Fold each of these.
Amino acid sequence: MLSIIIPTLNEEKYLPLLLDSIKKQDFKDYEIIVADASSKDKTLNIAKENNCRIVHGGLPGKARNEGAKIAKGDLLLFLDADVLLDPNFLVKSLKSFENKKLDVATFPLFFTGGLINKIISQIYNWWVVVTQPFLPHAFGAALLAREEVYKAIGGFDEEIKLAEDHDFSRRAQKTAKCGIIKSTHVLISDRRFKKDGWISTCIKLLLCELYMIFLGPIKSDIFKYKFGHYGEKTKN
């Protein structure tokens, strides 16, 4: 079985879209676990209406860990609430995962929006491919892992404030096989860029990468990471 784990905090706008894209998949042997950080909107009602299992979450790392604690599957798929899956995502990704004998996998990401978003997506995907052999990335928006490997490395480090997903893949690669599944992709909302600004977000991601390379996991709040503020109205 595949356990799909989704951290949420006030995701009434995006969660229904993700759940609908999951329902349309040809693959059906899955459960959906929503790890919610005390949402104040209709997120929990939506999860219940869609027969999701619900557990109390927190920041993304903790939420994924809490979801994994009750997971029944031997494969764990961690998804952000604001992503959409290609119609054949599950079938293609699981087939590639097994054919490549992977233990942890990430996917190409494409942000919604216009040309700038496409360029950012291409740059990110190129960087992930080029650095995979020595500096693996596994963006938590879509991360697939074997349950035994997840447990062996202790899951996500909840002390990390930002990029706990990349840290997860780098710890996993020491004893397991990590890779990129290119047979399918994930579409992710560009709300982070709209809310926090294009330039500032890209600079923050670059500095985050350099920090991890030279100083290690980010366990201080130096980058002022925010969770759950994307539901607020964007200023014009």
Amino acid sequence: MRVIGLQLDCVWENKAANHAKALSLLERAKPEPETLVVLPEMFATGFSMNVKGIDDTRSRETQDFLSRAAAEFKVYLAAGVVTTNAEGRGLNQCVVHAPNGSEMARYSKMQPFTLGGESDHYAAGPQPVVFNCREFSVAPFICYDLRFPEIFRAAVAQGANLFLVIASWPVMREDHWLTLLKARAIENQSYVVGVNRCGDDPKLHHSGRSAVFDPGGRSLADAGNEEGWMATSLELQDLIEYRKQLPFLNDMRQDYVKC
């Protein structure tokens, strides 16, 4: 399966500008039909705590844009959106659309970033989500989730073999970002696609470094620091053979998996 990560320098709280950026990158990347294309966390607004100002629940500006783009380019499209729950609390989500534009999966971030005040404005999601995308079983996660290996393990117990991690990860912890992506790949013998934003928001600089790792932790792609994209191919049969040669997951303690 072909995978493309679009690395944006997000314009702060400007959905129209970021939709235009994403569309331009899609046009330049020229994805083949049924490619899996991934955009960063909150790509349309930046990592904002202004839930009321960026909520997409009723306007559906970003969700409808993603649906149209998926259908126009005939790709699977995964991206960050902000919605609200019945109590008005924010939900930091990854929504996935199919090549016909229909929604096929929606995941709510399980670990809001407490240090950055996210948990004051956003509710935590209840559990991992695993969905089928062509030959792969995919589990999306969001940014701070990456520091909690137990939720990735829970997804593997549900059959996941490809993780998507969309993020707004700051430059001062870039080494953690790359190390943890690689670790999640190795320990779960799965492909990991991490797509981070680049550029500046009002508080932080983001260095990008979107990356893809194979089940053995080998780097398959790195987007560097600038706005642009990365592309690579994932081979399910290679993953199956690797797990056969090193059947570590067979020794996983099911009673430890709680999600």
Amino acid sequence: MKRLRYDEIGYWSEVKLDIIKKYAAAYSKILTSQIQPRLEHVYIDAFAGAGKHISKTTGEFVPGSPAIALSIRPCFREYHFIDLKETKVKALKELAGGRKDVFVHHGDCNRILLEDVLPRVRFENYRRALCILDPYGLHLDWKVIHTMGQMRSVDTFLSFQVGDANRNVLWRNREAVRSRQLERMTTFWGDESWKDVAYSLSAQGDLFGEPDEEKATNEQIAEAFRKRLQEVAGFGHVPKPVAMRNKQKAIIYYLFFASHKPVAQNIVEDIFRQYEGRS
């Protein structure tokens, strides 16, 4: 087996973990107190990693989202950790320590979520879930997002990796983009409507008076995706996302939250406000 390499994470990734921890704690407390009807709540981490990371700031290990989830009290009824890499799956099993309420899945999260995990948290079975969708790039299938939105039983934090999109897909000369990259964006977005969002014709035209395309800003693309989560996936409440940045202050990804409960949006907006203005 290959040697495990822990991910090194920067300041904003640590902020993301803080956000998840605060909401997961509130979520578990609220769901546990629900009595009529009594609900069972499940934690799902689709790109779980090894369970801990190395902080670029301190050089020390910091708990990843699976470890954070396992530390939350009251406990979730079940935990589902998914990763594609065998070394990280092994680390997750060690983290679980043989607990019967922890399920570690090895493979493509899109298939595992749709076939194995999401069917366990159906609304009509009085089950609810908090799902973390934190891919490294555009590695998520819209079918997963849409399914969760239609189920009405799942709250989700979702990372939209706009940095990956800008590097590989959203070029000013879109004719030069490889077909495989276009397909990745379409799979993530759900259809080709992202092209209408990302590009528009300039009213001024180019130097010769011909129509010229203008590329949308990151903020415009993020807002279009937020509306898509509501209007197409069917989530009732999707607050404005948090922009996660690198050392150069460039936006790497947007952290979205989506839910069907207004109280969930209120909690997340309050948490998001705690990080406004940070750099």
